[in-house]
Design brief:
CATH class of the largest domain: Alpha Beta
Helix content: 25-40%
Number of helices: 10
Shape: globular
Largest sheet: 10 strands, mixed
CATH architecture of the largest domain: 3-Layer(aba) Sandwich
Number of domains: 2
Order of helices and strands: EHEHEHEHEHEHEHEEHHEH
Strand content: 15-25%
Structural class: alpha/beta
Oligomer: single chain
CATH superfamily of the largest domain: Bordetella uptake gene, domain 1
Number of strands: 10
Amino acid sequence: MPFVRSAAAQGEWPNRPVRVVVPWPPGGSTDVLCRLLCEAMQGRLGQSFVIENRPGAGGNIGADALAKAASDGYTMAPLTLGAWHINQFLYRSLPYDPQRDFQPISMHWELPNVLVVSAQHCPANNFREFVAWARERRGGISYGSPGVATTAHLCGALFTDRLKIEGTHVPFRGAAQIIPAMLAGDLTCAIDNLPSYVPTIKEGRMKAFVITGAERWPTLPEIPIMSEVGVPDFVMTSWCAMAFPAGVPAPVVEKGSATMREIAGDPVVRERFLRAGAQCMGSTPGEVLARVERERPTWREVVRISGARLE
């Protein structure tokens, strides 16, 4: 019988184009950041990484497509928090098992949320003034998000619960609707993904009081983090990790992970990610799994606090 070399064993992956299923629409942050990564992957590995957008159901349609793909290393996807753990607490049932059906490759990106208000309609000038003002408002405050159980919604729910502020969640379709509502005075605030608000912050039309990351953001170092304004244990970031379906051979996983770690260390790539509003990241598969396990109890509790539930 002739000997047939295994592409995985010989480290020849990829020897044909790789399909990249993006569970979100074209033009969104996950799509844009995935395209930056795929461009860098193609340059290093010499094969095309072909984007296929499969949006819908909070990322579940794309995540399910990944889970059911062949375990040959030729389908991968950028999976955000929903697929890794939030959705299992939010939906009554899922078409995939996040603890069984995905093989992590590497962390991909991370970004914080930012608490913003309209400069014209909110008299507060810093975080403590905002909290005092919000607590005194008759009827409390309203906070916007891009949808139910997004990190913006969950951050807002946890924030109002922890700070003892009466708050009403108002879901929109995205920052493109949230920003005009705030500037018009129809919405009090948002704790949403930072990149969407940088232009209006820099223009002075919005005030930014705090971010939810572990460290100050490189391009807006004047904005404090939660621990600096007296709110401990409030680090809540949006992040994404690339994954294969379960069962992909270990040499392929390691080559993909090593390539992503190399990309994350490239200053040119890191600068491109920062301009797009995120920090480029690289890690081992085990570090992704450790983070998922570490954060799962927190997000389960935050979903409970929010009261969100979807079919």
